[in-house]
Amino acid sequence: MIKSIKKNWEFKKVYNQGKYIVSPYTVLYLLPNKEGEKRLGITVSKKVGNSVERHRIKRIYKEIFRLNHNKIIDGYDMVLVARKKAAELNFKLGCKDVIGLLKKGKLLEKTYKNEIN
Description:
The protein has 117 residues and is an alpha/beta fold. The protein has a single domain (3-104), classed as Ribosomal Protein S5, domain 2. 36% of the residues lie in helices and 22% in strands.
């Protein structure tokens, strides 16, 4: 199970101390944590679209992590930031994007095979 990052200071800590990986649709910030658990925060700004669009994008990201949480390595705080182009995302494209970011960040277990596409 992936826990949530909710507090502003937790987001800022990941932004300031973590590293980031960029794709056309998303920016993934990573920071190792001491708790040994995986935590996820999602940010979608008003630049991306109206409230309905922003929540649709959040639901896509949450579902991707829900389906793949057991394949992601423990011990990291992750923050996904949707870029303007994320308004074009559907579930399949979102999976490809996020899984690609997780692979670049070496956050997937070695035995992972992309079963969603």
